[in-house]
Design a protein that fits this description.
Helix content: 55-70%
Distance between the termini: 25 Å
Largest sheet: 2 strands, antiparallel
Strand order of the largest sheet: 1-2
Shape: globular
Radius of gyration: 18 Å
Order of helices and strands: HHHHHHHEEH
Structural class: mainly alpha
Strand content: under 5%
Number of helices: 8
Number of strands: 2
Length: 204
């Protein structure tokens, strides 16, 4: 007797995105809370908690607003795809790992802002969209747009540059490390999920 292939209930995919949305909202909320605090940690002094804290600090209000709005938009996109919980885990890991990787460039003395995490989130969602036929065109659009931006920035060759529009030095290498960490972790966790779920049916 033939059986229909295993599939999730119609409502399940949307529910799976709660972890992604919650992760993005927590990062935004903590960034806003730290902005309101009277004192911040010194981002130029490396501490064990630096990779987690410095991405949540921002240099001025527009800097904070731009990053939180971008991450908010990616939270909505992740809910629409939807992004499964392992994508939220990939983002949680890319958040500090992308910052830690900045130590590859000695000229990066300090870093503040969620921009690296935003690029990690974009890379994770590009990977997720590419994995599904229904969203593959969106995945190509998002992935190629991200690659073009990184290529134009050349963060590997010029990790820090002054941006007159912002009025401060922008660590474009953080965009590169965030995107690489996000894509690599999303792919790794997908592979682990497939390996662990072979006996339970296909992985979404």
């Amino acid at each position: 007797m033939n059986q229909r292939p295993h599939s999730d209930p119609p409502s399940a995919p949307r529910h799976r995105a709660w972890a992604w949305v919650a992760t993005c909202l927590v990062l935004i909320a903590v960034s806003l809370a730290l902005w309101l605090l009277p004192a911040h940690a010194d981002p130029a002094t490396w501490r064990p908690w630096t990779p987690w804290i410095t991405p949540l600090l921002h240099l001025n209000g527009p800097h904070l607003l731009a990053n939180t709005l971008a991450l908010g938009a990616l939270a909505v996109l992740g809910a629409a795809l939807p992004a499964p919980p392992r994508d939220a885990l990939a983002l949680c890991l890319a958040w500090p790992l992308g910052t830690w990787a900045l130590r590859l460039w000695p000229e990066v003395g300090a870093f503040q802002g969620l921009s690296g995490t935003v690029h990690a989130a974009a890379a994770i969602l590009a990977w997720r969209a590419l994995r599904r036929p229904a969203t593959r065109q969106l995945g190509w659009l998002l992935g190629l747009g991200l690659l073009l931006k990184l290529a134009l920035e050349r963060g590997w060759a010029e990790p820090v540059r002054f941006d007159p529009a912002w009025g401060f030095n922008v660590v474009v290498a953080a965009h590169l490390t965030g995107a690489v960490a996000g894509a690599a972790l999303a792919a790794l966790l997908d592979g682990l999920a497939r390996w662990c779920g072979r006996a339970r049916g296909p992985v979404p």
